[in-house]
């Protein structure tokens, strides 16, 4: 099938490339010329495992191309996916400018009957507004149907998620759209019941419900970690104790610095805004957000209180992890970056290391002249008083103890509870985690 995917960010690129991998003929369209030029050479503009090889393979097979031109990318194509960003406005609502721009551009260029799937996360009612916008701007008497197909992939494992989805949610009432969806996803050989059709508005809300629920699990365990810390109970026991119940499950139950990223914070803000639009209260979601914010503040207090009798302005600290989670270079709403900004104002120097996200972070942190970006994980460790782990990258989980012992104050702050506490203590290094 010929498909055009609009927006080559984290979602659009993975979706487009994976659809080419399963045999469709895909054009990925973006207005960013730099990005398209890189992609044409097989270079991925951000870090996502497995993507680069797949791009090169499918360019070679003539299944995949990249374009800046709406005109060229709409010729003889009947299936479109909109995957552009929906960032947060100041009032928490979603900025739909990019989605509407794309819808208008598509409407002005599409010349045959077509289906436009909205993969971007959009507030309830947006698909209907896009349908109206397209109808007002389309050429001639063609039929362009809008359907919702929210995306649930996780950065860092996005290719796998796309090719082996837990479910595909499609909001439509059209039998024609349903049969096209089945054909698009047919090569994935997913069971029928995993393709879930529902009304458009329900599909729109499902995406917000999924992200808000996962964020709620994180804030739940984090709130519990405050109590278990005060009671001197290791929160890891509680995680194991409740996570083994299949009704609860152990995913998203890691106590730590809290959630960040380009989705959870903005999707919760947008959902709260949707409640407000309906004059309804969303107490739970507001609390989820509050707990998340406090988690970072509490951790900062632990660091400050550890050094209480010595001047922090003379201290040098080492930070491991900049990305909002492992296996990505995405630092949008990264808790690590927020913590670094708070700490940089208080300490003499911060040495920071991340296997992938340094380049993105440099732009974000360049106004601080006491932050040094390290090329390797342990360099300068003997100059530092403490290590703070902010992202649970695999390479951080089993550190070289001989090197850790070089820390001047011999203390490790584990913001993700991802280190082996016993091993660290055995090496006479103090361990401060999140109720661990
Ligand atoms: N990132 C995730 O993990 C994830 C997961 C699920 C859903 N989502 C949702 O998917 C959507 C996209 O997120 P993302 O992280 O991929 O965004 P992104 O910011 O990484 O990428 C957006 C891309 O859209 C392009 N673009 C903007 N305006 C355009 C236009 N008029 N025409 C063509 N291209 C245009 C930009 O140049 C950019 O490359 C958002 O709504 C997000 O909430 C994201």
Unreliable parts = none
Secondary structure tally: strands: 14
Order of helical and strand elements:
EHEHHEHEHEHEHEHEHHHHEHEHEEHEHE
Strand content: 5-15%
What best-fitting shape do the alpha-carbon axes yield? globular
The portion of residues assigned to helices is 40-55%
Mean pLDDT: 97
Work out the radius of gyration: 24 Å
Q: How many helical stretches?
A: 16
- Terminal CA distance: 52 Å
Q: Might you state the CATH topology name of the largest domain?
A: Rossmann fold
Word description of this protein:
The chain is of the alpha/beta class. It is built from 16 helices and 14 strands. The chain folds into two domains: 2-198, 3-Layer(aba) Sandwich (Rossmann fold); 199-436, Rossmann fold (3-Layer(aba) Sandwich). The strands form three sheets. Strands 3-2-1-4-5-6 form a six-stranded parallel β-sheet, sandwiched between helices. The protein is globular. The N and C termini lie far apart (52 Å). The model has no long low-confidence stretch (mean pLDDT 97). Nicotinamide-adenine-dinucleotide (NAD) is lined by residues 6-12, 29-32, 35, 83-86, 98, 101-102, 120-121, 151, 153, 155, 262-263.
């Amino acid at each position: 099938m010929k498909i055009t995917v609009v927006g080559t960010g984290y979602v659009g690129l993975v979706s487009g490339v994976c659809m080419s991998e399963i045999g469709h003929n895909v054009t990925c369209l973006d207005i960013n010329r730099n990005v398209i030029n890189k992609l044409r050479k097989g270079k991925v503009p951000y870090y996502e495992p497995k993507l680069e090889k797949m791009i090169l393979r499918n360019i070679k097979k003539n299944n995949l191309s990249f374009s800046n031109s709406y005109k060229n990318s709409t010729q003889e194509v009947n299936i479109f996916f909109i995957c552009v960003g929906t960032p947060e406005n100041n009032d928490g609502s979603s900025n739909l400018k990019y989605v509407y721009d794309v819808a208008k551009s598509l409407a002005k260029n599409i010349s045959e009957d077509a289906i436009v799937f909205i993969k971007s996360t959009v507030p309830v009612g947006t698909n209907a507004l896009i349908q109206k916008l397209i109808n007002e701007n389309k050429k001639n008497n063609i039929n362009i149907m809008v359907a919702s197909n929210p995306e649930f992939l996780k950065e860092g494992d996005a290719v796998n998620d796309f090719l082996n989805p837990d479910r595909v949610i499609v909001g439509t009432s059209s039998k024609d759209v349903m049969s096209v969806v089945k054909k698009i996803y047919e090569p994935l050989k997913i069971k029928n019941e995993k393709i879930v059709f529902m009304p458009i508005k329900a599909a729109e809300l499902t995406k917000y419900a999924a992200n808000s629920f996962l964020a709620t699990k994180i804030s739940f365990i984090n709130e519990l970690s405050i109590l278990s810390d005060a009671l001197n109970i290791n929160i890891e026991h509680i995680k194991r104790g409740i996570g083994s119940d299949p009704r609860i499950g152990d995913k998203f139950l890691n106590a730590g610095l809290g959630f960040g990223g380009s989705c959870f914070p903005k999707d919760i803000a947008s959902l709260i805004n949707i409640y407000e639009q309906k004059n309804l209260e969303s107490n739970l979601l507001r609390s989820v957000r509050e707990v998340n914010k406090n988690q970072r503040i509490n951790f900062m207090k632990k660091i400050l209180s550890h050094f209480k009798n010595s001047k922090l302005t003379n201290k040098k600290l080492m930070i491991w992890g900049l990305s909002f989670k492992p296996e990505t270079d995405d630092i949008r709403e990264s808790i690590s970056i927020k913590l670094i900004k708070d700490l940089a104002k208080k300490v003499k120097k911060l040495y920071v290391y991340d296997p992938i996200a340094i380049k993105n972070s440099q732009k974000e942190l360049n106004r601080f002249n006491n932050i040094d970006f390290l090329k390797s994980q342990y360099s300068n460790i003997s100059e530092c008083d403490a290590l703070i782990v902010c992202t649970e990258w695999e390479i951080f989980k089993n550190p070289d103890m001989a090197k850790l012992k070089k820390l001047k104050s011999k203390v490790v702050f584990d913001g993700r509870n991802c280190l082996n506490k016993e091993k660290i203590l055995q090496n006479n290094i103090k361990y401060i985690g999140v109720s661990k």
